Amino acid sequence: MSRLEKAIVSMVEVFEEYATKDDKNRQLSGTELAELMKKELASSEFHGKVEPAVLQEAMTNLDKNHDGEINFREFSMFLATLARGYYRARNKGNKGKPDKPE
User: EF-hand domain: which residues (predicted)?
Assistant: First the structure.
């Protein structure tokens, strides 16, 4: 698989792993989301690049339908917000030129 295909598969697998811990297999509860974030967003590389304000923005915008649960659509928008924040932080000072792949 390509890197992008692996990223998509990983995104789905992570959601399913945490969402299936209770009876609502297609939703993340607040507890499941907290566990996911603690375990899956723990590296210093990530926290060094994504500003706390971006994390807060992502969290604030999570539950779009205000049902107290996070569905896959909301989760994917959350990841997109985190990716944008990471991209901006990674490319700060590059005047719009992204870093070259390693």
Answer: 50-85
